[in-house]
Amino acid sequence: MHIDLRSDTVTRPSKEMLAAMMTAKTGDDVYKEDPTVNELESRVAKMFGMDTALFFPSGSMANQAAIKLHTQPGEQLICDKWAHVYNYEGGGVSFNSGVSCKLVDGDRGMITAAQVEEAINPPDFYHSPLTTLVCLENTTNKGGGACYDFAEIEKIRKVCTANNLGLHLDGARLFNALVAKNEDAKDYGKVFDTISICFSKGLGIPLGTVLVGNNDIMQKAIRVRKVLGGGMRQVGIIAAAGLYALDTNVNRLAEDHRKASEIAETLQKQTYVKEVEPTETNIVIFYLTDAVSEEKFMDDLLQKNIKISNMGQGKLRIVTHLDYTDPMHELFLKTLNTYK
Ligand SMILES: *Cc1c(COP(=O)(O)O)cnc(C)c1O
Protein backbone atom coordinates (compact mmCIF):
# COMPACT_ATOMS: atom_id res chain seq x y z
CA MET A 1 0.00 0.00 0.00
CA HIS A 2 1.37 3.43 -1.00
CA ILE A 3 0.13 6.26 1.20
CA ASP A 4 0.67 9.68 -0.34
CA LEU A 5 -0.15 12.49 2.06
CA ARG A 6 1.97 15.19 0.44
CA SER A 7 -0.99 17.01 -1.07
CA ASP A 8 -4.63 16.69 -2.08
CA THR A 9 -3.46 17.24 -5.66
CA VAL A 10 -2.19 13.64 -5.94
CA THR A 11 -5.66 12.14 -6.42
CA ARG A 12 -6.44 10.28 -9.64
CA PRO A 13 -9.77 10.33 -11.45
CA SER A 14 -12.02 7.48 -10.28
CA LYS A 15 -13.69 5.04 -12.66
CA GLU A 16 -16.98 6.95 -12.35
CA MET A 17 -15.26 10.29 -12.99
CA LEU A 18 -13.52 8.83 -16.04
CA ALA A 19 -16.87 7.53 -17.29
CA ALA A 20 -18.33 11.04 -17.01
CA MET A 21 -15.35 12.38 -18.95
CA MET A 22 -15.69 9.74 -21.68
CA THR A 23 -19.24 10.76 -22.52
CA ALA A 24 -18.77 14.55 -22.31
CA LYS A 25 -20.09 16.68 -25.13
CA THR A 26 -17.27 18.91 -26.34
CA GLY A 27 -16.57 21.85 -28.63
CA ASP A 28 -13.87 24.47 -29.07
CA ASP A 29 -13.80 26.41 -25.81
CA VAL A 30 -11.65 29.20 -27.27
CA TYR A 31 -14.75 29.96 -29.38
CA LYS A 32 -16.81 29.38 -26.18
CA GLU A 33 -18.46 26.45 -27.99
CA ASP A 34 -17.80 23.71 -25.47
CA PRO A 35 -21.19 22.97 -23.89
CA THR A 36 -19.71 21.12 -20.92
CA VAL A 37 -17.31 23.93 -20.02
CA ASN A 38 -20.14 26.44 -20.44
CA GLU A 39 -22.31 24.34 -18.14
CA LEU A 40 -19.60 24.11 -15.47
CA GLU A 41 -18.98 27.86 -15.63
CA SER A 42 -22.64 28.80 -15.38
CA ARG A 43 -23.20 26.30 -12.58
CA VAL A 44 -20.34 27.76 -10.51
CA ALA A 45 -21.46 31.35 -11.22
CA LYS A 46 -24.96 30.47 -10.07
CA MET A 47 -23.68 28.69 -6.99
CA PHE A 48 -21.87 31.87 -5.91
CA GLY A 49 -24.65 34.18 -7.07
CA MET A 50 -22.22 35.97 -9.40
CA ASP A 51 -22.55 36.97 -13.07
CA THR A 52 -19.91 34.90 -14.73
CA ALA A 53 -17.19 32.27 -14.38
CA LEU A 54 -14.22 31.18 -16.48
CA PHE A 55 -12.39 27.85 -16.50
CA PHE A 56 -8.58 27.99 -16.19
CA PRO A 57 -5.96 25.25 -16.47
CA SER A 58 -4.51 26.02 -13.01
CA GLY A 59 -5.13 27.87 -9.78
CA SER A 60 -2.00 29.92 -10.25
CA MET A 61 -3.21 31.13 -13.64
CA ALA A 62 -6.66 32.01 -12.29
CA ASN A 63 -5.12 34.00 -9.42
CA GLN A 64 -2.67 35.71 -11.74
CA ALA A 65 -5.46 36.65 -14.15
CA ALA A 66 -7.53 38.04 -11.27
CA ILE A 67 -4.59 40.15 -10.07
CA LYS A 68 -4.14 41.47 -13.63
CA LEU A 69 -7.84 42.35 -13.83
CA HIS A 70 -7.70 44.34 -10.60
CA THR A 71 -4.41 46.23 -11.03
CA GLN A 72 -2.16 48.35 -13.24
CA PRO A 73 1.68 48.08 -13.32
CA GLY A 74 3.35 49.87 -10.42
CA GLU A 75 0.46 49.32 -8.05
CA GLN A 76 0.51 47.27 -4.87
CA LEU A 77 -1.62 44.49 -3.42
CA ILE A 78 -1.98 43.51 0.21
CA CYS A 79 -1.70 39.87 1.31
CA ASP A 80 -0.52 37.70 4.16
CA LYS A 81 3.21 36.88 4.26
CA TRP A 82 2.36 33.21 3.66
CA ALA A 83 0.01 33.84 0.71
CA HIS A 84 0.19 31.42 -2.20
CA VAL A 85 0.04 34.34 -4.66
CA TYR A 86 3.24 35.70 -3.11
CA ASN A 87 5.16 32.52 -2.26
CA TYR A 88 4.19 29.83 -4.73
CA GLU A 89 3.29 31.39 -8.05
CA GLY A 90 6.81 31.91 -9.32
CA GLY A 91 6.87 35.66 -8.79
CA GLY A 92 3.93 35.98 -11.18
CA VAL A 93 2.55 39.04 -9.39
CA SER A 94 5.54 41.09 -10.61
CA PHE A 95 6.11 39.11 -13.83
CA ASN A 96 2.55 39.25 -15.13
CA SER A 97 1.13 42.40 -13.58
CA GLY A 98 4.16 44.51 -12.58
CA VAL A 99 2.66 44.72 -9.11
CA SER A 100 4.34 44.54 -5.68
CA CYS A 101 3.01 42.90 -2.52
CA LYS A 102 2.67 44.54 0.88
CA LEU A 103 3.02 41.59 3.22
CA VAL A 104 0.98 41.45 6.40
CA ASP A 105 2.06 39.42 9.43
CA GLY A 106 -1.19 37.51 9.89
CA ASP A 107 -2.27 34.56 12.03
CA ARG A 108 -1.91 31.18 10.25
CA GLY A 109 -2.18 32.90 6.89
CA MET A 110 -5.19 35.03 7.82
CA ILE A 111 -5.19 38.81 8.13
CA THR A 112 -7.59 41.22 9.85
CA ALA A 113 -9.49 44.29 8.65
CA ALA A 114 -7.35 46.45 10.97
CA GLN A 115 -4.17 45.06 9.41
CA VAL A 116 -5.51 45.72 5.92
CA GLU A 117 -6.38 49.29 6.85
CA GLU A 118 -2.90 49.85 8.25
CA ALA A 119 -1.23 48.40 5.13
CA ILE A 120 -2.93 50.77 2.66
CA ASN A 121 -0.60 53.46 1.29
CA PRO A 122 -2.19 56.92 1.39
CA PRO A 123 -3.51 57.39 -2.19
CA ASP A 124 -2.30 60.99 -2.51
CA PHE A 125 1.22 60.17 -1.26
CA TYR A 126 2.73 59.68 -4.73
CA HIS A 127 6.07 58.39 -3.39
CA SER A 128 4.65 55.01 -2.50
CA PRO A 129 2.87 52.54 -4.79
CA LEU A 130 -0.87 52.93 -5.08
CA THR A 131 -2.70 50.18 -3.17
CA THR A 132 -5.50 48.74 -5.30
CA LEU A 133 -6.13 45.13 -4.27
CA VAL A 134 -6.42 42.82 -1.27
CA CYS A 135 -5.90 39.07 -1.73
CA LEU A 136 -7.17 36.67 0.93
CA GLU A 137 -6.79 32.88 1.06
CA ASN A 138 -9.42 30.50 2.45
CA THR A 139 -8.56 27.92 3.55
CA THR A 140 -4.95 28.91 4.02
CA ASN A 141 -2.36 26.51 2.66
CA LYS A 142 0.82 27.37 4.56
CA GLY A 143 -1.40 28.30 7.51
CA GLY A 144 -2.47 24.66 7.87
CA GLY A 145 -5.92 24.72 6.31
CA ALA A 146 -7.18 27.44 8.63
CA CYS A 147 -10.60 28.97 7.91
CA TYR A 148 -11.45 32.66 8.11
CA ASP A 149 -14.11 33.93 10.44
CA PHE A 150 -16.67 35.21 7.92
CA ALA A 151 -17.39 38.28 10.06
CA GLU A 152 -13.75 39.34 9.62
CA ILE A 153 -14.06 38.96 5.84
CA GLU A 154 -17.10 41.26 5.93
CA LYS A 155 -15.07 43.83 7.86
CA ILE A 156 -12.29 43.58 5.27
CA ARG A 157 -14.91 44.13 2.55
CA LYS A 158 -15.92 47.38 4.25
CA VAL A 159 -12.31 48.58 4.36
CA CYS A 160 -11.89 47.71 0.66
CA THR A 161 -15.06 49.55 -0.34
CA ALA A 162 -14.12 52.62 1.71
CA ASN A 163 -10.66 52.70 0.13
CA ASN A 164 -11.57 51.75 -3.42
CA LEU A 165 -9.69 48.43 -3.32
CA GLY A 166 -10.55 45.23 -5.15
CA LEU A 167 -10.99 42.09 -3.07
CA HIS A 168 -9.88 38.74 -4.48
CA LEU A 169 -10.18 35.37 -2.77
CA ASP A 170 -7.69 32.62 -3.50
CA GLY A 171 -10.23 29.91 -2.79
CA ALA A 172 -8.12 26.97 -3.93
CA ARG A 173 -9.68 25.06 -1.01
CA LEU A 174 -12.78 27.18 -0.48
CA PHE A 175 -15.04 24.11 -0.56
CA ASN A 176 -13.13 22.74 2.43
CA ALA A 177 -13.99 25.92 4.35
CA LEU A 178 -17.65 25.88 3.22
CA VAL A 179 -18.04 22.28 4.40
CA ALA A 180 -16.05 22.71 7.64
CA LYS A 181 -17.93 25.85 8.70
CA ASN A 182 -21.25 25.06 7.05
CA GLU A 183 -21.14 28.29 5.07
CA ASP A 184 -22.99 29.32 1.91
CA ALA A 185 -21.11 30.01 -1.33
CA LYS A 186 -23.53 32.89 -2.06
CA ASP A 187 -22.30 34.81 0.98
CA TYR A 188 -18.80 34.66 -0.49
CA GLY A 189 -20.15 35.84 -3.84
CA LYS A 190 -21.58 38.90 -2.11
CA VAL A 191 -18.34 40.08 -0.50
CA PHE A 192 -15.62 39.23 -3.00
CA ASP A 193 -15.04 40.78 -6.42
CA THR A 194 -13.36 37.64 -7.73
CA ILE A 195 -12.90 34.12 -6.36
CA SER A 196 -10.73 31.30 -7.71
CA ILE A 197 -11.78 27.74 -6.84
CA CYS A 198 -9.51 24.77 -7.57
CA PHE A 199 -11.08 21.54 -8.77
CA SER A 200 -7.75 19.72 -8.69
CA LYS A 201 -7.42 19.71 -4.89
CA GLY A 202 -10.05 18.21 -2.60
CA LEU A 203 -12.55 17.78 -5.43
CA GLY A 204 -10.18 15.36 -7.12
CA ILE A 205 -10.30 16.30 -10.80
CA PRO A 206 -7.09 16.08 -12.88
CA LEU A 207 -6.71 19.82 -13.41
CA GLY A 208 -8.60 23.06 -13.56
CA THR A 209 -9.71 26.09 -11.59
CA VAL A 210 -12.77 28.28 -12.02
CA LEU A 211 -12.52 32.05 -11.59
CA VAL A 212 -15.87 33.58 -10.72
CA GLY A 213 -16.86 37.26 -10.54
CA ASN A 214 -19.23 39.95 -11.70
CA ASN A 215 -19.37 41.32 -15.25
CA ASP A 216 -17.71 44.67 -14.54
CA ILE A 217 -14.42 43.03 -13.56
CA MET A 218 -14.70 39.75 -15.52
CA GLN A 219 -15.28 41.41 -18.90
CA LYS A 220 -11.57 41.29 -19.74
CA ALA A 221 -10.91 37.92 -18.11
CA ILE A 222 -11.11 35.92 -21.32
CA ARG A 223 -8.55 38.20 -22.99
CA VAL A 224 -6.17 37.93 -19.99
CA ARG A 225 -6.58 34.14 -20.01
CA LYS A 226 -5.66 34.10 -23.70
CA VAL A 227 -2.59 36.29 -23.06
CA LEU A 228 -1.43 33.92 -20.33
CA GLY A 229 -1.81 30.97 -22.70
CA GLY A 230 -4.77 29.50 -20.88
CA GLY A 231 -7.26 29.21 -23.74
CA MET A 232 -7.99 25.50 -24.16
CA ARG A 233 -9.95 23.70 -26.88
CA GLN A 234 -12.11 20.55 -26.27
CA VAL A 235 -11.64 20.90 -22.54
CA GLY A 236 -15.16 19.69 -21.84
CA ILE A 237 -13.62 16.31 -21.08
CA ILE A 238 -12.12 17.96 -17.99
CA ALA A 239 -15.13 20.14 -17.20
CA ALA A 240 -17.23 16.95 -17.15
CA ALA A 241 -15.03 15.72 -14.32
CA GLY A 242 -15.68 19.07 -12.60
CA LEU A 243 -19.46 18.67 -12.87
CA TYR A 244 -19.15 15.12 -11.57
CA ALA A 245 -17.04 16.38 -8.65
CA LEU A 246 -19.58 19.06 -7.72
CA ASP A 247 -22.23 16.36 -7.41
CA THR A 248 -20.11 13.75 -5.69
CA ASN A 249 -17.03 15.11 -3.98
CA VAL A 250 -18.07 18.22 -2.05
CA ASN A 251 -19.92 16.90 0.99
CA ARG A 252 -17.46 14.06 1.44
CA LEU A 253 -14.72 16.61 2.25
CA ALA A 254 -15.99 16.24 5.83
CA GLU A 255 -14.44 12.78 5.79
CA ASP A 256 -11.03 14.22 4.88
CA HIS A 257 -11.42 16.70 7.73
CA ARG A 258 -12.28 13.94 10.21
CA LYS A 259 -9.25 11.91 9.17
CA ALA A 260 -6.99 14.96 9.44
CA SER A 261 -8.19 15.71 12.96
CA GLU A 262 -7.66 12.06 13.95
CA ILE A 263 -4.11 12.28 12.62
CA ALA A 264 -3.58 15.53 14.56
CA GLU A 265 -4.88 13.92 17.77
CA THR A 266 -2.63 10.92 17.29
CA LEU A 267 0.42 13.09 16.63
CA GLN A 268 -0.30 15.15 19.73
CA LYS A 269 0.15 12.04 21.90
CA GLN A 270 3.57 11.12 20.54
CA THR A 271 6.72 11.95 22.50
CA TYR A 272 8.61 12.69 19.27
CA VAL A 273 6.15 15.46 18.34
CA LYS A 274 6.76 18.94 19.76
CA GLU A 275 3.66 20.70 18.50
CA VAL A 276 0.65 20.26 16.22
CA GLU A 277 -1.07 23.30 14.74
CA PRO A 278 -4.85 23.56 15.17
CA THR A 279 -6.45 21.35 12.50
CA GLU A 280 -9.70 22.67 11.04
CA THR A 281 -9.83 21.06 7.61
CA ASN A 282 -7.68 18.58 5.64
CA ILE A 283 -4.18 19.93 6.41
CA VAL A 284 -2.11 18.96 9.46
CA ILE A 285 1.05 20.92 10.23
CA PHE A 286 3.31 19.68 13.01
CA TYR A 287 6.82 19.98 14.41
CA LEU A 288 9.14 17.28 15.77
CA THR A 289 11.20 17.44 18.98
CA ASP A 290 15.00 17.52 18.78
CA ALA A 291 14.99 13.73 19.27
CA VAL A 292 14.40 13.13 15.56
CA SER A 293 15.19 15.24 12.50
CA GLU A 294 12.60 15.94 9.83
CA GLU A 295 14.80 14.18 7.26
CA LYS A 296 15.06 10.97 9.33
CA PHE A 297 11.36 10.94 10.16
CA MET A 298 10.36 11.39 6.53
CA ASP A 299 12.88 8.81 5.42
CA ASP A 300 11.59 6.26 7.95
CA LEU A 301 8.04 6.85 6.70
CA LEU A 302 9.20 6.49 3.12
CA GLN A 303 10.62 3.05 3.99
CA LYS A 304 7.00 2.14 4.79
CA ASN A 305 5.76 3.70 1.50
CA ILE A 306 4.32 6.75 3.26
CA LYS A 307 4.98 10.22 1.86
CA ILE A 308 4.48 13.55 3.65
CA SER A 309 5.81 17.08 2.92
CA ASN A 310 8.52 19.21 4.48
CA MET A 311 7.57 22.88 4.27
CA GLY A 312 10.80 24.20 5.77
CA GLN A 313 11.37 25.98 9.12
CA GLY A 314 10.63 22.68 10.87
CA LYS A 315 7.10 22.47 9.47
CA LEU A 316 5.93 19.04 8.35
CA ARG A 317 2.67 18.84 6.43
CA ILE A 318 0.11 16.10 5.94
CA VAL A 319 -2.87 16.56 3.60
CA THR A 320 -5.79 14.12 3.54
CA HIS A 321 -7.80 13.56 0.36
CA LEU A 322 -10.19 11.47 -1.72
CA ASP A 323 -7.67 8.70 -2.42
CA TYR A 324 -6.60 8.34 1.23
CA THR A 325 -8.75 5.35 2.13
CA ASP A 326 -9.89 3.93 5.49
CA PRO A 327 -7.35 1.05 5.42
CA MET A 328 -4.58 3.57 4.66
CA HIS A 329 -5.77 5.73 7.55
CA GLU A 330 -5.74 2.79 9.95
CA LEU A 331 -2.25 1.76 8.89
CA PHE A 332 -0.94 5.34 9.07
CA LEU A 333 -2.30 5.94 12.60
CA LYS A 334 -0.74 2.64 13.68
CA THR A 335 2.57 3.65 12.14
CA LEU A 336 2.52 6.95 14.05
CA ASN A 337 1.59 5.22 17.30
CA THR A 338 4.41 2.68 17.05
CA TYR A 339 7.11 4.93 15.56
CA LYS A 340 10.42 4.87 17.40
C1 LIG B 1 -2.82 24.83 -4.93
C2 LIG B 1 -3.07 26.24 -4.63
C3 LIG B 1 -3.21 27.16 -5.66
C4 LIG B 1 -3.06 26.80 -7.11
O1 LIG B 1 -1.86 26.19 -7.38
P1 LIG B 1 -1.60 25.40 -8.75
O2 LIG B 1 -0.29 24.75 -8.51
O3 LIG B 1 -1.55 26.42 -9.82
O4 LIG B 1 -2.70 24.45 -8.93
C5 LIG B 1 -3.50 28.48 -5.31
N1 LIG B 1 -3.65 28.84 -4.03
C6 LIG B 1 -3.54 27.98 -3.01
C7 LIG B 1 -3.76 28.43 -1.62
C8 LIG B 1 -3.23 26.64 -3.27
O5 LIG B 1 -3.12 25.78 -2.25
Describe the protein in words:
The protein has 340 residues and is of the alpha/beta class. The protein folds into 2 domains: 234 residues, Aspartate Aminotransferase, domain 2, CATH 3.40.640.10; 88 residues, Aspartate Aminotransferase, domain 1, CATH 3.90.1150.10. A hairpin with a 6-residue loop joins strand 9 and strand 10. The chain has a 7-stranded mixed sheet with strand order 2-8-7-6-5-3-4, sandwiched between helices. The two termini are 21 Å apart. Helix 6 runs parallel beside helix 7. The protein is built from 15 helices and 13 strands. The structure holds pyridoxal-5'-phosphate. The site of pyridoxal-5'-phosphate has 12 residues, from helix 3. Belongs to the threonine aldolase family. InterPro entries: ArAA_b-elim_lyase/Thr_aldolase, Low_specificity_L-TA-like, PyrdxlP-dep_Trfase, PyrdxlP-dep_Trfase_major, PyrdxlP-dep_Trfase_small. Keywords: Lyase, Pyridoxal phosphate. Its cofactor is pyridoxal 5'-phosphate.
Lay out the secondary structure.
Blueprint: E1 3-4, H1 15-22, H2 35-48, E2 52-56, H3 59-70, E3 76-80, H4 84-87, H5 92-97, E4 100-104, H6 113-119, E5 131-137, H7 150-162, E6 166-171, H8 174-181, H9 185-191, E7 194-198, E8 209-213, H10 215-218, H11 221-227, H12 236-248, H13 253-268, E9 273-276, E10 283-288, H14 294-303, E11 306-307, E12 309-312, E13 315-319, H15 326-338
Parallel strand pairs: 1-11, 3-4, 3-5, 5-6, 6-7
Antiparallel strand pairs: 2-8, 7-8, 9-10, 10-13, 12-13
Helix pairs in contact: 1-12, 2-12, 6-7, 13-15
Bound molecules: pyridoxal-5'-phosphate.
Modified residues (N6-(pyridoxal phosphate)lysine): 201
Cofactor: pyridoxal 5'-phosphate
Keywords: Lyase, Pyridoxal phosphate
